[in-house]
Design brief:
There is one protein chain. This protein is an alpha+beta fold. It has 3 domains: about 70 residues, 2-Layer Sandwich (Uridine Diphospho-n-acetylenolpyruvylglucosamine Reductase, domain 2); about 110 residues, Uridine Diphospho-n-acetylenolpyruvylglucosamine Reductase, domain 3, CATH 3.30.465; about 80 residues, Uridine Diphospho-n-acetylenolpyruvylglucosamine Reductase, domain 1. About 25% of the residues lie in helices and about 25% in strands. It has a 5-stranded antiparallel sheet with strand order 6-7-13-11-12. Strands 1-2-5-3 form a 4-stranded mixed sheet, with helices on one face. It has a 4-stranded antiparallel sheet with strand order 15-18-17-16. Strand 9 and strand 10 form a beta hairpin. The longest helix has 19 residues.
Length: about 300
Amino acid sequence: MKMLNEMFPSYNIQANVNLGNYTNTRVGGPADWCFWPKTQHELQQVVLFANEANLPITVLGNASNLVITDDGRQGVVIFLTEMHQIKVFQNNIIAEAGAWIIDVAQMAYDYSLTGLEWAAGIPGSIGGAVFMNAGAYGGQIDQVVQSVDVITPMGEIKTYPVADLAFGYRHSLVQETGDIIISATFAMQSGKRAEIGSKMTDFNERRAQKQPLEFPSCGSVFKRPTGYFAGKLIMDSGLQGCQIGGAQVSTKHAGFIVNRGQATGSDYVNLISHIQDVVYEKFSVNLETEVRILGRK
């Protein structure tokens, strides 16, 4: 079988790429192949080829809410960061999957559209935000999504209306289907630009005060357990500041694990497991990861 870059010589495809250069945590081993599609057509062609060749596919945007282990990722890792167009039509915003949600929130502000103020400081892509139904400060993606366009594993274009996406807490249907999100349409409301800007500033100031933005991290590590807050459970377990290798429970916000320098994927995975064990031992609460942990298998 021809190599992937030989099949598509004009596409941006690279072999044996260190994923730690592209993740927010700065950890992760090699990918067999990495592909940065510029168009929907390029993406379709490689998806079709990969599926016919039984080549596993991993889709990433800004690689912010995940940990990639030291053995890296098998198959082709597709980064959608080159597909980042944002368009506004009346009260609708259409954003490609690789667009930063920060930029979409800024565009909403520019056009006096309200509904995405909470997303003004989230360092993730639209595809990732839809995939996991991202949210903060009382807002969630499912509150503003109207529809989502995907490429199926068979290379077909399909549109899901919001009612079909089975949104839940940090969940969407796309987590189960193998579809690749290519764009999302947001139904926004007209608002007052000054009020929208004030909310965005307030949320960003709160983030800066409470979150360890000065270090690489994978964002919020654990889902919120029913009746509890993950960060408080971790803090009450005496784990704030706990460190394994270069990975540390943030001293600023216990719900974050930061890379204090030279952390590895194993450091992250081992620290996450240690936190889960200690919290369960002390409080009989199972902490489920919000962050995705991806390895070679």
